[in-house]
Amino acid sequence: MALNRKETDETGRNWERPDQDGQKFQGHLVTALLRSGVCLTLQDARGRYVFITNLPDSWALPDRSEPRDVDIYGAEFAGRLDEAKARVRNSGNAERVHAERADGRFFEFFIESYPDGADIAILTTVTELTEERRREKVLKSLLREVSHRSKNLMAIIQSIASQTARSSGSLASFLPNFYGRLHSLSKSQDLITDSSWRGAKFRDLAHQQGAKYFRDVAKAMHLSGDNPNLSPNETVHVGLALHELIVNALAASRLNGGTPRIQLECTVTDKAGVETASIDWRELRNLQDIQSDNEEEQDAFGSAVLNRIAPSALDGTARYGDVEGIISYTLTFPLHANH
């Protein structure tokens, strides 16, 4: 029977030539269905299979007997399908049943009633959703990770704000220190985001932290040694430590109208099977580069970052020295970027 679009297809998306040979048309449809890869099954009113096309290779049809759900899918899942098909027959409402295989593959069975003269047949479409399911799990995992990292980031910002406020005598002294630390944090976060949350290379981080304060970072900061991958947590806290060192160096050198002379070296060693990074800062100052009492007060939080906050967050140690005009700082911690 030819399809009359106006009477039988309200969607306006189906059409067939009304004067074509019905038997040929049926053959063409069967060929198209088989080649589409779509799994369709049709069962008559008694539950007997009329046809099954493109059954997923997670299951197999019996060799020499008429197929039944229990033979194809096993007793447990066949029972679920039988219950769903009975409900669809009685109510006329389509249902979806899902099956997850032991190998992780995931399938959806869309079951709907199909008029077969005076009887009701059951048409089932089986779709594999394994990849969609995997993407959904990955997305949920990423959202949880973003939520976790956002909370950590907010905690760091809150700590920076409160600690900077305690170390500042006025709003005028608070704002530049706070904005500088936020800028350091944001630049570290940019590197983390650009790397898809893997972290950052040490030299990229050092360059990012110095770019705000030096026109020529390579000239102001001589970088040498290894260039390890830093985890997101390491990136944030090493970045904060570098920021404090750079700001302190600038504050001291400006007293004499000079520029800082900085050597920064990173060395990676194996300690008892654990990769350990040691970041060594060496800054040459003139003996008269002495900060005022007010500047020392402003650097109280900076000192806490260098000596307590950064090493604690990295499960490492820190050592700060000031001997005859040479400022030294060594931050040592186990690398977690590759674990």
Please provide a brief summary of the model.
The protein has helices at 5-8, 22-36, 69-73, 75-91, 130-166, 171-194, 202-211, 217-220, 232-254, 293-298, 300-313; strands spanning 39-43, 49-53, 95-100, 106-116, 119-128, 200-201, 221-225, 229-230, 261-271, 274-284, 317-323, 326-334. By secondary structure, the protein is of the alpha+beta class.
Strand and helix layout:
Blueprint: H1 5-8, H2 22-36, E1 39-43, E2 49-53, H3 69-73, H4 75-91, E3 95-100, E4 106-116, E5 119-128, H5 130-166, H6 171-194, E6 200-201, H7 202-211, H8 217-220, E7 221-225, E8 229-230, H9 232-254, E9 261-271, E10 274-284, H10 293-298, H11 300-313, E11 317-323, E12 326-334
Parallel strand pairs: 7-9
Antiparallel strand pairs: 1-2, 1-5, 3-4, 4-5, 6-8, 9-10, 10-12, 11-12
Helix pairs in contact: 5-6, 6-7, 6-9, 7-9, 9-11
Please tell me about this protein's structure.
The chain is of the alpha+beta class and 339 residues long. It has 2 domains: 37-128, PAS domain (Beta-Lactamase), CATH 3.30.450; 173-334, Heat Shock Protein 90, CATH 3.30.565.10. It has 11 helices and 12 strands. The strands form 3 sheets. Strands 2-1-5-4-3 form a 5-stranded antiparallel sheet, sandwiched between helices. The model is unreliable at 1-8 and 290-298 (pLDDT under 50). Keywords: ATP-binding, Kinase, Nucleotide-binding, Phosphoprotein, Transferase. Residues 1-22 are annotated as: Disordered.
Highlighted features:
single chain; 339 residues; alpha+beta; Beta-Lactamase; Heat Shock Protein 90; 2 domains; five-stranded antiparallel sheet; five-stranded mixed sheet; 12 strands; 25% strand; disordered N terminus; Sig_transdc_His_kinase_HWE; nucleotide-binding; kinase; EC 2.7.13.3; phosphoprotein
